[in-house]
TrEMBL record:
Keyword Lyase: no
Name of protein: Enoyl-CoA delta isomerase 1, mitochondrial
Keywords on record: Acetylation, Fatty acid metabolism, Isomerase, Lipid metabolism, Mitochondrion, Transit peptide
Statement: the UniProt record of this protein carries the keyword Isomerase: yes
Complexes and interactors: Homotrimer.
Function: Key enzyme of fatty acid beta-oxidation. Able to isomerize both 3-cis (3Z) and 3-trans (3E) double bonds into the 2-trans (2E) form in a range of enoyl-CoA species, with a preference for (3Z)-enoyl-CoAs over (3E)-enoyl-CoAs. The catalytic efficiency of this enzyme is not affected by the fatty acyl chain length.
Alphabetical list of InterPro entries matching this protein: ClpP/crotonase-like_dom_sf, Enoyl-CoA_hydra/iso
Source organism per UniProt: Chironomus riparius
Length: 285
C-alpha cells in the first residue's frame, strides 16, 4: 500500500484534503494541510503545505483547525504534525501580514491562531511533531503544543518573537515556562534564542534528535504507540488537568488576548522592527 502518492478523495473543506488509499491518482492538490491516515495504526499525518516556508496566516491556521476537527470526527488514535517542505517545518507568523496589516487583520490572525491552538492543545488524541526543518517563532510554538517532538539535525528551533519586536504573548510564556527549566525559559524568551536540535534537546525543547524525516516519523509513531494500551479517557483527563491553566486562559480571556496581541504588534517600536526584519529577509539574496 503506497502512502506517499496523493490520491483523489472527497474534499473535506476548501483547504484540507484527506489522503487515502483509494486507487485514483490525481496531480498534487494545493491544499494548505495534507492529511494522510494510516489505516493500520489509525494515526493521521498532517503536513503543513504553505510553501515555501509554511508561514502562518489565517488560512493556514484555519486549515490546521479543520484538519484537527476531521481527526476528532474520525476518532483518530493520534496525529503526526509535519511539513511538506524539505527543510522548513514552519517559519512562524507570516511577516507580510505583520508588516502590511492593520488592527482588524491582526485581530483576525490572532483569533484564528487561538482556535488552532485550542484544537491541538486540547485534542482528545496525542499529537507528535516530526520537525523536519526550521521551526521558528510560531512554528516552534506549534511544535511545543504537541505532546512530543522529534527534530532533524541541521536546522534551528526557537521562539524569536522578541527579535521581531513583538512582546511575547502570555500563552507562549506560560507554555515555554513549563516546558523549559526556568532559567533557560527566561533567557530564551527575552533574547529570542534559536537553538540547534542538539542544544534544544538539552533544555527539553525537543525530545529526540534524528537524522532525517523518516526517522522523525518512526519516533513519533513509537511515541503514539505508548498510548495504545492506556484508556484514552484517563489520559485526556490527566492531560487536561496539566494543561487547564493555558486552555482556560484563552477560553476565558479570548478578546483580551487578541487585544494584547494587536497592541504588541501595532506599537511604533514593533512596527519599526518588523519593517527592518521584513527588509532584511527580502534583501537576503
Ligand atoms: C493563543 C496563541 C495561540 C497560538 C499562537 C500561534 C502562534 C504564535 C506566534 C507568536 C508570534 C510569533 C511571531 C513570529 O512567528 S514572527 C516570524 C518569526 N520567523 C522568523 O523570524 C523566520 C524568518 N525566516 C527565516 O529565518 C528564513 O526564511 C528561514 C530560516 C525560515 C528559511 O531560510 P531560507 O534561506 O531557506 O529561505 P529564505 O530565502 O529566507 O525564505 C524563502 C522565502 O520565504 C520568505 N519568508 C521566510 N520567512 C517568512 C515568514 N515568517 N513570513 C513570510 N515570509 C517568509 C522569505 O522572505 C523568502 O521570500 P522571497 O524572497 O522568496 O519572496
Amino acid at each position: 500500500m503506497s502512502r506517499n502518492i496523493l490520491f483523489l478523495s472527497k474534499t473535506i473543506n476548501s483547504n484540507v484534503r484527506r489522503l487515502c488509499t483509494t486507487p485514483t491518482p490525481v496531480q498534487k492538490a494545493e491544499k494548505l494541510v495534507l492529511i494522510d491516515v494510516n489505516d493500520k495504526t489509525g494515526y493521521g499525518t498532517l503536513s503543513m503545505n504553505r510553501l515555501p516556508v509554511n508561514s502562518l496566516n489565517v488560512e493556514l491556521f484555519n486549515a490546521l483547525s479543520d484538519a484537527y476537527d476531521e481527526m476528532e470526527k474520525n476518532k483518530s488514535r493520534g496525529v503526526i504534525l509535519t511539513s511538506t517542505s524539505p527543510k522548513i517545518f514552519s517559519a512562524g507568523l507570516d511577516i507580510n501580514d505583520l508588516y502590511s496589516g492593520d488592527s482588524k487583520s491582526w485581530s483576525e490572525l490572532w483569533d484564528a491562531s487561538q482556535e488552532a491552538f485550542l484544537k491541538i492543545y486540547d485534542a482528545s488524541f496525542p499529537s507528535a511533531a516530526a520537525i523536519n526543518g526550521h521551526a521558528i517563532g510560531g512554528g516552534c510554538f506549534f511544535s511545543m503544543i504537541c505532546d512530543y517532538r522529534a527534530m532533524v539535525k541541521g536546522y534551528q528551533i526557537g521562539l524569536n518573537e522578541i527579535q521581531v519586536g513583538i512582546a511575547l504573548p502570555k500563552v507562549l510564556v506560560m507554555i515555554m515556562g513549563k516546558l523549559l527549566p526556568r532559567r533557560h525559559a527566561e533567557i530564551s524568551l527575552t533574547q529570542g534564542t534559536l537553538y540547534s536540535p542538539e542544544q534544544a534537546s538539552k533544555i527539553n525543547l525537543v525530545d529526540d534528535v534524528v537524522v532525517d524525516k523518516a526517522e522523525a516519523i518512526i519516533k513519533c509513531e513509537a511515541f503514539l504507540n505508548k498510548f495504545r494500551k492506556i484508556p484514552m479517557d484517563a489520559v485526556n483527563t490527566t492531560k487536561r488537568t496539566i494543561r487547564r491553566e493555558e486552555i482556560d486562559y484563552i477560553r476565558n480571556n479570548k478578546q483580551k488576548d487578541i487585544d494584547d496581541f494587536v497592541k504588541a504588534v501595532e506599537s511604533v517600536e514593533a512596527q519599526n522592527t518588523i519593517k527592518m526584519y521584513y527588509q532584511a529577509l527580502k534583501n537576503k539574496k
